[in-house]
Fold these 2 entries.
Entry 1:
Amino acid sequence: MRAAFFNGKGQLRVDEVPATAPGPGEVAVRVSACGVCGSDLHSFLGHWPQPPFAPGHEIAGTVEAVGEGVTHFAPGDAVTIEPLIPCGECRPCRAGQPSACGHHEFISWHRHGGFADQVVAPARCLLALPEGPARAQGALVEPLAVAIHGLRRAPLQGGDTLLVLGAGTIGLLAIAAGRALGAGRILATAKHTHQAERAEQMGADTVVRMGEGNPAEALATLTQGEGVDVVLDSAGGSQAIDLALRAARRGGTLALVGAYPLPPRTALNEVIGKELRLVGSNCYGLVDGRRDFALAIDLLASGRVDPSPLVTHRFPLAEIQQAFETASNKSTGAVKVLVEP
Ligand SMILES: [Zn+2]
Ligand SMILES: [Zn+2]
């Protein structure tokens, strides 16, 4: 099969590698689409290490073969793959919080990911995609689950004012999911014009432009000085966490989803003085016993979240170099770039 690999800073190559047969409890999935994630771009651009396996963890495809003991899936089934493989044995796993597992594996870091013809994954990582929009947008289930996990971890309550920082894929999906999960009012920040337009398209009531005027003052004015109930930070970085601490209402909650490339320097006294709650949100897993992936599929299947405006580019696997160059150059207007082997 063909599989793409990082090949030094700013470079990818496509190699021919032997296809693996699924072992006991595993399933081989023929990839139909795999999205380029911001974390893939960090590896591509040399900010993060480059895994020795084929990258790609926003995967949709069709079951090709099942290993011994797999009864829930059969060849031909349309599926998406939850790439975080928790150990199932540690304390957080046993307590129903697999996203906090310290011994997990991650598809694309510990085995080949979705920028390849085929992925072999444990059957417990697969979820069936019902016919209709969820199947057509199967590669968007993973980033939607990231956004949903952050909102459910907060937790966002019906009627809450939600502020979403950052208007990349996760932020834009958090806006749409926040709307579907009952937010009363949604504010968002965006750096680029095309992101601001999409934030409104996905359901933000008001978008505050970063780099224009004073965003903290603008948000204070928009909330009559009270602040917002929940801030979901998908942007990461010192500027975002600072804005989050200032924009949250007294007693409000910050759900931290975006990674911080450097340890942020920030006014943590706001946390004490305003009695803020800081909630970390890692990938996805279970909240109240229900998989974030399952809820993401429901929201897509019912049409309550429509991520189709976010898919701006599609490339075949042979053109993965162009796919990554397009995704890392925001002047292309790229939001979600899909690779379709
Ligand atoms: Zn990702
Ligand atoms: Zn574990």
Entry 2:
Amino acid sequence: MSLVSSLTTKLPKVGTTIFTTMSQLAAEHGALNLSQGFPGFDGSPALLALVEKYLRKGFNQYAPMTGVQPLREALARKTEVQYGQGYHPEREITITSGATEALFAAITAVVRPGDEVLVFEPAYDSYVPAIELNGGTPVFVTLDAPDFAVDWEDVRRKITDRTRLIIVNTPHNPTGYVWTRNDLDQLAALIQYRDIWVVADEVYEHITFDTYNHVSLAQHPQLRERTFVCGSFGKTFHVTGWKVGYCLAPAELSTEFRKVHQYLTFSTVTPIQYALAEYLNEPEHYKSVAAFYQQKRDFFLRQLAGSTFQWKPSQGTFFQNLSYQTKVPDYELAVRLTKEIGVASIPTSVFFHQKNDHKLLRFCFAKDEETLEKAAERLCQWPGFVS
Ligand SMILES: Cc1ncc(COP(=O)(O)O)c(C=O)c1O
């Protein structure tokens, strides 16, 4: 008889993520992988050279818990220029191991057992497990196709005395919806007289298209005071594997955030932080990202003309959703397209807790033109029905 009793899971609903499943399936079938959200190209040679410089200069020991000073200062300048809002580099900016850590630390700093947390769904997959590990309950506000705009009446109905936190993601993964100033005003008005905090996942802050502009919660005076703004250098500079992100929050919130961060990772990778600090001093490096991705989105959509898919051009992020007409569940179609035509995508139903099926597949267009062209060519060959 084993002396070890069986471990009861704290996350019974969590299994292998769809991103792993689809990427594995893509690899098995030699399919073009437009499923997972990472660029198919490298970060800029200048940025890579800076990392090498700091590695060789011996910046290889623990960074300060809050992040290296030049990076916090560079972020403070960037935020001031971009959003007209100052965050104090000593007290209000913390560098983290990716936005994932920032999100987890912010949620943990706020949520206690019994608290309710409003989550807009479809939702990025890391929010709910973080809420549940802290004893909180996610309360879902569903965004509906085709626009996936926020139904503010529904938000108002779902706020209760137990609501402690609201998680916002703009530009939104997977729908590409970009929150408007009106959205921020509506949110601010609803929580004005309540003890409710906000986590803003703004990892795609630099990727918006056409006339859509990112409005950060940092820009909204009332929201700024109660928001943890989480960002990711990985997304902005095509280096997702580096996992360096940050949290901007007023001093009182940052103090609590840091208590968690301190025991979660303590600090993050040193030479990369110095490299990013130097790289951020040239604003063009992040200002050019939107045009870079817009060109990719437009290219991908041009190549899809003549296919049986329909779409609304994505407002932001590096994802484009394509809808289809047949009755096949989106999960099944994503698997079949991977196996049969060699293009992997993500079925958007996985981003809903009840797996709402809008017959919509998410494609990541952060790939080189050759890959996008080949993928589109294959998608154009799909007849629009399954036999
Ligand atoms: C909406 C959203 N938030 C957070 C993350 C994670 O960012 P990071 O890689 O910096 O941890 C991702 C990555 O896909 C994302 O799409």
